[in-house]
Amino acid sequence: MLFNSEIFILLFVPATLLVYYRLAAHNRPRQWCLIAASLLFYGYWDIRFLPLLFGSAVGNWLLLRWFARSGGGAGMHRSLPLIAVLFNLLLIGIFKYADFVAGTLAVVGLWSDEPIGIILPLGISFYTFQQISYAVDLHRAARDGKAVSVHGFREYLLFVSFFPQLVAGPIVRHNEIIPQFRLDPRRPGLEERLARGGMLFLVGLGKKVLIADVAARIGSPMFNRVLEGGTLNLGEAWLATYAYFLQLYFDFSGYSDMAIGLGLMFGFLLPINFNAPYRATSIQDFWRRWHMTLSRFLRDYLYIPFGGNRGGILVQMRNSFLTMLLGGLWHGAAWSYVVWGGAHGLAVGINGLWRHLGLRMPALLGWFCTMGFVAASWILFRTEDFAATWSIYQSWFGLHGRGGTTIDSPLILSALIAGGIAAFAGPTSQKFILDQLRPSRWVGLFAALALVGMILLIGGGLQSEFIYFQF
Known about the structure:
- By secondary structure, the protein is mainly alpha-helical.
- It has 18 helices and no strands.
- The chain has two domains: 34-183, no CATH class; 192-470, no CATH class.
- Helix content is 70%, strand content 0%.
- The protein starts with 5 loop residues before the first helix and ends in a 12-residue tail after the last helix.
- The relative contact order is 0.11.
């Protein structure tokens, strides 16, 4: 079920909170309550996804439990975390990349043109990454001579399946979340956690419903026209670019706000995933602010193992390129994502070389260049088609006509203006809600009215899946 659906907001969340807090005094029952709710949430999409999620968790836990009981590295048992990593890669390789590989082989005549047709399970990229991080951390602890242990199956399954961040992150590490499962949710600060978590959820819902989905109403028809073989004039191309620029940010950061808010309502603090990325003044700065938990994963489990900052600037550039190339492939099983990731890897490497040479750039110019590159790369990210992307690039310079366009809807115009202000100025939603917002009856009244209004919009058909669900 969608976070931005009536059944989730009006039934699932209140019922889960009610049962969870009725069981608050009992650690095991309340954890099983969250597991049951998470599996219900996940199975609601497609019951066929559940066996893979559950089987993946069981397989990983058994391998890592075996490793821990062996003392963490005696004989053949030393390779068990690696086997767990390969097990995860095999699952994601089959279910996410089988058709991509088959299609690529078909191009060169090594496979039939008929797709394999494997359904992509929702959130598989996220929950496999979390389990890979668990296995690698366990291996590193054993390598460093530390005592290794694996959490019980109940806590491990909750770590993998916790519904707020199951299908689109944030990507959470076991040492960040599992210790919190044991905390009494009624501990001091309960009212504040519920209130601030609810407000952050509401802000995230507003980002999705009032900005992202509204921006999509003007941007998507233009992108679809190009994908169907049409063209855009100069004004349309820039409007479509700006609309998607906002749509993607507010769609994904809205989801992250909702996930973090939900976690807080249950008493858990999830890691921040966005920190005003559209204010970045370099591409390296951008990736420190955008999808921060993915950037952290890529750094710790790819970039550093590749060699990280060791070996000189050219080696660092190579490592950055390979890391972002694989990061692009993680986003989607298509060559367009590989090229998108490679472009960002090249940009990150050039940024590193620029700094290594001691060169400087005015902050405003750096911001302009960074946002220009990001906006250009989002076109390929959106179309997943090289010809359509090239056509829109041409339209940027008026090669398909220098005409303009108009925005007839006040709602769309307001969303584009408000989205730009929120993206480029003012405090981030997490900082404002979690640190700066002060309790007030008027704030509560406004929040209640806003929630009612957005539920009415959702009921009227203004809802869609989150973009990152496809990854």
